[in-house]
Design brief:
By secondary structure, this protein is an alpha+beta fold. The chain is 21% helix and 30% strand.
Length: 759
């Protein structure tokens, strides 16, 4: 709901309010937080008095006589506000001051940007500001959705002289109070490193300059009250619908105002704005909760699922994928793929994805990107033939592309070397992954990608696309932005006419995990690191900003290629259950006990898929230091408990389940999971009734026929007991096998589902 009365603007959603007002021509920020009334505006406003001894007065007698100590919705530049400005402009190569005054507002039925993605179904208010001296018009757009607010800016050159934009943020907000900044940075196979730091008078910035939202710096971040916890405390969440280089900053003033801004990275940015032209910033998303980090997770989860992803995929279950990459990489034939497909179907998978290597002379990553003609030697019946055979098995068919790049060793590059991005001064091209980026700022390049990819999708029964992008950009500033606009144009033209095709975005893992891609791609590959220990951290960090329904999470072989760490198959599966489950390993090498375990994982996932993908996600810890992940719907709760390195003589451990009715009764059951007999080594003489050589044939045979279950547990208790913490079965303590105990070595885990007991 949006109301405007007596110069006070009140935006209100289910749980929060956003208030600002016109004060002496400027927009004064009043409140972002708990729901209030517009009548509270005067009580919320600051009382600046006569300013400070060294104040630069905007105007004698003005109510906003010193902009430097004033909470603003948009800061002018060079007019007395010395805090970081959301805007930097040049005219004839010289920086100019800006001073934007309110001139009016209106509600808009449609306010979708011309080239950028934006939230779906929001109510929008346009607030118009004008700088008459600079002949500029600024439109601030505010959107309201059930759990979030949105903001973006449009700058229009109304004069007759070109303007150079060096910096233009999507949002500028001055928030009172003490805050801790939570950011998510890292790098390849180490995405989403969660760090926190108090906001002080020293400016804290996080920025991507790689041309993508980047594994180095996710565009989402949080401001939390110092005492905020998972289920209590004030938390503000921010994100950006943008897939290019971005920027965020937070800085506290002496008066206790924290200026927060985020938008396109200003690094090397220079956008020429000709007379009559306008520039649109990406949409910023803002959420508030007094229910802690879990509350903000719920806000963002609902937002992504209800207002961001393509409508066709709203609330649709994500299929269980088998991806061919780690099973065979470039070395495959149709017969091998069909053999893997048959095994995948037997285990319960629903969609078979042919990854890299199906086109041109693509036997390594050194050639053929851009040449999307089927390799007839590998696939004599083409994609259509392969897809139809997989469909006949009961599997959907998916395909990998990397359309934004080109190999210098390719027919496309030999025909059109000018289609690649090159250094502006003619320096030697810098290759990444043996490839260059295509110049998506060129219409002919975009047309080629749309026609080639679209033609392939229409030529075979393809229901899924993995869209990869495996290098950083060496373009600068404005060129990077134009590239992203070109990418959005390509995605829109390919997938809007084919809404039923499930698009999964990937960029060397998490290089483009952002809301801009989610507008087109209902799910995104989290990381090239599938080690479950690493994925615990990566997926948990992502969960603050993005729901499980969009997290691509695959089970791969152990020891893991990224860490050389050997982890239990049940744990690999249990971590992946809390996302879009998939498998990426050579199925022909699985032992019978491993096949049985994977089949059980998939059966469990199918039974609880809606909860795991769309349930309310929260995080916690057990008394014994285990990580708890919880997904909850009205019907049931699924909880996972994950451990690190096992220690001798582990203590008792309680599982706390939140959100249950304290007066009702609930039953907890553990997910049955299998152990390998051989994992017990020389302890076999203690766990089996006969003495066996742990490395002998008999043990290998026992793994096939002797089922050893782990951590079986059933509990019935009240919701109050679950909230207090129910006692879990004891962990292995060196005293032998017990089917009812948790036989966990290093990195063990268990998953439980909880349902109400009907009286």
């Amino acid at each position: 709901m949006i109301t405007v009365k007596h110069g006070v603007f009140h935006l209100q959603n289910e749980k929060s309010s956003y208030l600002f007002r016109v004060r002496d021509g400027f927009l004064e920020h009043l409140h972002f937080g708990t729901r209030l009334s517009a009548s509270d505006a005067d009580a919320l406003a600051v009382r600046p008095g006569n300013g400070w001894g060294d104040s630069t007065l905007y105007r004698e007698g003005s109510n906003a006589n010193c902009l430097d100590i004033f909470p603003l919705e948009w800061s002018s530049c060079g007019r007395g506000d010395y805090r970081e400005s959301p805007m930097e402009l040049l005219q004839n190569g010289v920086p100019i001051s800006t001073e934007f005054h309110y001139i009016g507002c209106e509600a808009l039925k449609s306010a979708h940007p011309s080239a950028l993605p934006a939230s779906r179904g929001q109510t929008v208010l346009a607030v118009y500001l004008e700088d008459s001296a600079a002949k500029l018009r600024l439109t601030l757009l505010y959107g309201v959705l059930p759990t979030v607010f949105t903001r973006r800016a449009i700058l229009e050159n109304c004069g007759d002289t070109p303007i150079s934009i060096r910096k233009l943020m999507s949002a500028n907000t001055d928030l009172p109070g003490d805050w801790t900044l939570h950011i998510f940075s890292g790098g390849w196979i180490a995405e989403m490193q969660h760090t926190e730091t108090p906001v002080t008078m020293a400016r804290t910035c996080l920025e991507s300059t790689t041309g993508a939202s980047s594994s180095r710096a996710n565009p989402g971040f949080l401001l939390a009250a110092p005492d905020a916890a998972e289920t209590a405390g004030e938390v503000c969440g921010f994100n950006l619908l943008y897939s290019g280089s971005h920027y965020l900053s937070a800085q506290k003033s002496l008066q206790g105002l924290t200026r927060v801004m985020h938008g396109i990275s200003p690094a090397n940015f220079n956008w020429e704005l000709a007379p009559g032209e306008r520039f649109e910033t990406p949409e910023a998303v803002m959420a508030w909760s007094d229910a802690g980090f879990g509350g903000i997770t719920d806000c963002f989860g609902r937002y992504v699922n209800e207002a961001l992803i393509p409508p066709y995929w709203k609330n649709r279950p994500r299929p269980i994928v088998y991806n061919s990459w780690e099973g065979c990489m470039f070395d495959f034939t149709e017969a091998k793929l069909l053999r893997l497909g048959k095994l995948a179907k037997q285990l319960g998978c629903e969609l078979f994805v042919l990854d890299d290597g199906w086109f041109g002379k693509r036997d390594s990553d050194t050639s053929s990107l851009g040449d999307y003609s089927v390799n007839a030697k590998k696939l004599p019946n083409g994609l259509k033939g392969l897809g139809e055979k997989l469909n006949a098995m009961g599997l959907q068919f998916g395909l990998w592309f990397e359309p934004e790049s080109v190999s210098p060793d390719s027919e496309l590059y030999r025909r059109h070397p000018d289609w690649a991005l090159h250094d502006s001064l003619g320096r030697t091209d810098l290759l990444g992954r043996h490839q260059l980026l295509l110049d998506l700022t060129k219409p002919e390049v975009r047309d080629y990608i749309v026609e080639s990819v679209g033609g392939i999708l229409d030529s075979a029964p393809i229901s899924y696309v993995k869209w990869d992008m495996n290098r950083h950009s060496c373009a600068l500033g404005a060129k990077q932005h134009e590239f992203i606009l070109g990418l959005y144009d390509v995605l829109r033209r390919i997938f809007e006419p084919r809404p039923e095709v499930l698009l999964e975005s990937c960029s060397s893992g998490g290089n483009r995990f952002d809301c801009g891609m989610l507008y087109f791609s209902p799910q995104i590959w989290c990381s090239d690191d599938t080690d479950p220990v690493e994925r615990l951290r990566i997926q948990q960090s992502l969960s603050y900003l993005y729901p499980p329904s969009c997290l691509g999470a695959h089970v791969s072989a152990g020891p893991h290629a990224q860490t050389l760490r050997a982890t239990p198959l049940p744990t690999r599966g249990n971590v992946s259950l809390f996302g879009c489950l998939g498998y990426e390993l050579d199925l022909t090498e699985l032992l019978p006990v491993e096949q049985t375990e994977i089949r059980a994982q998939i059966e469990f996932y199918k039974a609880h898929r809606r909860t795991l993908q769309y349930g309310r996600f929260t995080r916690g810890k057990t008394d014994g230091g285990g990580i708890i992940w919880q997904a909850k719907t009205k019907e049931e709760t699924v909880a996972g408990v994950f451990h690190g390195v096992q220690h001798a003589a582990p203590g008792y451990e309680r599982l706390r389940v939140t959100g249950l009715d304290e007066k009702k009764q609930y039953r907890l059951d553990s997910r049955p999971q299998l152990l390998r007999v051989g994992d017990f080594g020389s302890l076999l003489r203690h766990v089996l009734p006969v003495k066996l050589n742990p490395n002998g044939l008999a043990v290998q045979t026992a793994d096939s026929y002797y089922k050893m279950y782990d951590g079986q547990q059933t509990v019935t208790a009240s919701g109050a007991a679950y909230s207090a913490g129910i006692m879990l079965a004891p962990r292995f303590a060196g005293t032998g096998y017990d089917a009812d105990g948790r036989m966990q070595g290093d990195f063990g885990s268990n998953v439980y589902f909880i349902r109400e007991v009907q009286s």
